[in-house]
Amino acid sequence: MSDIVPTVGLIVWGVSVDKAYHWIVGQIAFFLFAAGIQMGNTVITSYVVDSYPLQSMSVVTYYAVFLNLSAFASPFFIAPWETQSGFTWTFAAQGIITFFGAVPIFAALHRWGGSMRAIAGQPSWVNAEFDSM
Fold first, then answer.
1. Is the C-alpha dihedral spanning 118, 122, 123, 128 positive or negative?
2. What is the pTM of this model?
C-alpha cells in the first residue's frame, strides 16, 4: 500500500497540473502522496525498531538523515527536469521510479529479511543508553 499510494499521487499531481485540472484534484493527489510517504516511513521505522532494538535510535536517525537529504536534494533536480520534460512526464517518471524501486526492496525484506539479519548477525555496538561503560 505504501508503494502504490504515493505513486498514484505523484502521477495524478503531474497530470493535473499539466492539464490544468480543477485545483482539488492536485490537493487530493498531494494527500495521496503524503499519506503514502507517511505509511512507508511508519513501516520502515517499525521494521528497524523490531529488527534492531538495541540499535534502534541510531538506525532510525541514520534513516531520517538520508530521508531529509533526499528531500533537500530533490528541488535542485526537479526544476530543470520539469522544464525539459513537462509536469506529466516528470512526476509520472518519479512515480514509476518509486514503484519499481520500492516494491522489490520491500518484497525482498518481507521474504528474506529474517535470513539476511541472521547471516549478518547482531551489530557489536548499541545505543548510548544501553552502553554499560
1. positive
2. 0.77
